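Hey, quick one: can you model this chain's 3D structure?
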Amino acid sequence: MKKNITKLISVFLLLASWMSSGCRDDYEEPPEVESSDEYVDLRPRQTPIRWQGSRTTCIVFAGVAALEASYKKFGYGDLDLSEEFINFTRKSFYLHPIWQDHLNKGVTARETQLGSTGGGGGVGVVAELGKAYKLPLENVMPYVDVNNYYESNFPALVQAIDKGSDATQKDYSDFNLDPRILTSNILKTEKWYSVGSYKELADAKDTDEIEKILKAGNEVVWDFAGANPAESIDDNNIWQACSDCAIIGHSMLIVGFDKRDPDPAKHHFIVKNSWGTDYLTGTDMDGFTTISYDYVKNYGVEAAYILWPTAPEAWPEIPFVGRWKTNLDGWKGTLDIYHLPGMSDYTFEFNYLRNVIPEQYEDYRIGTYYDTQGNPFRVNGSVNGNKLEFYIDPDEPLVRWDVIRGTPHVFYMDDYDYMAGFYELENGQEYAGYAVKGSYLNGGPQTPRPFSTQSYYPSMWQLDCNGKKGVLTFTKQAGNNNEFLLLDGTFLKNGSTTAVAAQLKMYYNDPSKVYVQIIDFDGEPESFIGRHLSWEGGLITGHTPETVDIRPFSMTRIESN
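Sure thing. Here's the predicted structure for all 561 residues.
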């Protein structure tokens, strides 16, 4: 339900932007197009023709071309969106949908694909962009048209390929989660683009239906398995059906049709391909391709069209993707986040409708957790904004995608690849933990144990919350009764010469947990709820109260008693 609400909100925002298009600074009047019963030409609303190079990535070029055209139709001008991003993520975030295969191979086996590969269908790209995926502009993650680029630059990919069927999920994630590919800057891009609504055709060979959609002003993503045009193209540079030609699988974008010639043999569809502007293109077509009606009637496999795009928006969940070093109450491990819940909705739907899987699973998968000994545990949960809720089941490492079971962990992420929060065991005991994409935090000098008054009075701590740092000093008891200890102190922000008032409260029935208040933290009062990690010297982690803008923090002891 939440995913549907989010999509409706995005659609509402887009509709609102259309209604106020006269006031939008970035609004561009869409070019006029020709449309009649005999001739439809949507080429003026297309972005420039691309070149996929030697890679099998035609499907993302077809899907992205359709999305770019939809944005142009609704006044966003010539957007150049990143084919590389959607190609890499739809492979590296993919989940193999046949559960019995996972049961047969075990928890170490891979469940994703390699982000460097291609293949699939253009309709699938549109569907994924209409359900859970988004993509940034081209300059954020430029396309690589060299087929062996990744193999030449990432040894982990070569190792995974060499292992073949013996490759594990960790082997795949060693490559897919390499921070040089989906960099922090890419994942923190401000604007993301996706499909607001789309429809699939019942029959990709139905030329009447395709004409109808084109007349309505919508391009058609067309997947086919048909005659190699290098063998079947005729003297008019129109791709023709051919019974004895080699068969290729390909995806393109149909952008018009022309039936004005009295000779039906010359009737054709106008297509935007991804082979550049001068290879097997139509005569005087400015780089566009022409294919015959028979070609479409014989070879169509799947087809779809976009009704409208979403308004460009933030994607606060995507920065969670990556390899995180975890510290759970001092026990260190690794959390590989290679999936966001909902990203396999289309995969499960597609395979269920074709009777490949017995049911249409819910998708709660997040990734795989590796404990201190390197043992893997599949991880499910939810991601909402900067909040990650994930579950680790120590008794069942191989948890199916739709199962929520195990120890719940609730962490919040900041803007600097750090997240922290709490988890609770079955006995009700709560512990703290954190995760980083970089180096582990320094534990600081040993805090006196067992935790009690002596652990915090007197004491000094380096506080870090979303990049804002300073020193907390507690030197005075403000209250001490049978229930709690209250300490007065100060906070001196880095770069400042004026300290402000601060307080720390510790309840005696739970002395590893502290509540800190600072009267002026970056211009306004702020509270922090944290817990001391049991197996670290002097380290408290947690987050601000669960109100509007929740941020994680750390307190590292800098002076022992």
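One thing worth noting: The longest strand covers residues 468-480.
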